[in-house]
Amino acid sequence: MMRILPLIPLALLTTPAAAQTQPSPARLKADVEKLVSFGTRHTLSDPDHPTRGIGAARRWFAGELGRIGEACGGCIEVANVARTFTNDRAPKGVEIVDVLGFQPGRDPKRVVIVMGHIDSRVTDVMNATSDAPGANDDASGVALVLEAARILSREKFDATIVYAALSGEEQGLFGGTLLAETARERGWTVSAVLNNDIVGNTVGQDGRRVADRVRVFSEGIREVEPLPGQLARRADGGEDDGPSRALAKAVDGVAGKLPRGLDVFVVRRFDRFGRGGDHSPFLKLGYPAVRFSVGVENYDQQHQDLRSADGKVYGDTVDKMDFAYLAKVTAINVATLRRLATAPAAPASVTIGGALATDTSVKWAPVPGASGYRVHWRRADAQDWQQHVDVKDAQATIEGVIVDDTFVGVSALAADGTESLVTFGGRERR
DSSP alpha helices (H): ranges in 23-134? Predict the structure, then answer.
């Protein structure tokens, strides 16, 4: 059974953090070093020890979120969700606690989520006592979440932003499962999930340095779609335009407007080959979710006992990280969160028509709070939207555009023109 744990009392918090407008490499490094200082953050480590283990790390993260919230006059509410999970990596059962910060928007039920996992491990996934620094995997993601909260907490949004540190990723994606199921149980409309896991290094296994891009993984055909739905998407040509792929394309567009930023490498699979992460449980429930990960990985620095052997140094330590790079990944997350939390929700469905005609008709479900809509289209051999027109009503006709040769999608617009994700248009289903 899921338990909702109490808020962190503000009386226990210390001096508010200073406001920031850009991600700080120094602040990110300090947060990663603090997380490493807990020795191990293994999910099965002592949750009650005051200075070592996952419990101490979670309490520190909650305290940091609380300080940020206090600095903005209580704009972030800190709470935990918890539930016991059991599997072969937790045979005696373990209480999984996700630490959450809620920055309420004008619509408390619509959320955008930014998250990383706070747990760490060494070579033996059951070793809960040896030092497991987990600097890049995934203190980098947790530090990014805190930095995003510092920057965005001074702003007001339409959607609620959820800042999350998840537990139990290494033992079986427990924390992602808990938060995804919490979203479903509470009836949240989830506009986006940004999972940040291994986002702080630039030197790979073979010594190559990749500091100019970040990978963003997304599904095309939705896992949640039954076979008839998948076949319908195939018939419409929408394999590259599911909600999570639309999110990845939006991230790419946002990143392209950031000065001296990173290229977003949109990887057209849901995660690295044969692997997974905490966004996976969200995909199982139909929510748009992507994973950020570095442009190149070093496997000697993941899930390794701290040691040297045959001239190699193993272990996930702070000195292997690139905090200027991590700041750039953070900036992309911040800009994406800002856009999607400002915009309305995406249209729930879009249908198109125009068979045996020279015009294409488009209609969609009206979006509460939308000031208008943007109808996008592109040639059917292109991946990115090429043209658009803005309209006020929830229908449009694109004259002279033949539906056989064209893909169409629609986004919702805020009063200032901020745009939601694009919902792909297909045939009306009866």
Answer: 25-36, 54-71
The reply to whether 298 and 398 lie within a common domain is no
Per residue of the chain (430 residues), give pLDDT as tens: 344 443 333 333 333 333 458 999 999 999 999 999 999 999 999 999 999 999 999 999 999 999 999 999 999 999 999 999 999 999 999 999 999 999 999 999 999 999 999 999 999 999 999 999 999 999 999 999 999 999 999 999 999 999 999 999 999 999 999 999 999 999 999 999 999 999 999 999 999 999 999 999 999 999 999 999 899 999 999 999 999 999 999 999 999 999 999 999 999 999 999 999 999 999 999 999 999 999 999 999 999 999 999 989 999 999 999 999 999 999 999 999 999 999 999 999 999 999 999 999 999 999 999 999 999 999 999 999 999 999 999 999 999 999 999 999 999 999 999 999 999 999 987 6
Q: Which of 275, 307, 342 is the last residue of a domain?
A: 342
Q: Characterize the bridge pairing of strands 77-87 and 90-103.
A: antiparallel
Same domain, 98 and 191: yes
Q: Identify residue 300 by its one-letter amino acid code.
A: D
CA 166 to chain centre: 12
Domain, as residue range, for 249: 25-342
Last residue of a domain, one of 342, 362, 391: 342
Residues 249 and 288 placed together within one structural domain of the fold: yes
> How far is Cα 376 from Cα 389, in angstroms, rounded to an integer?
7
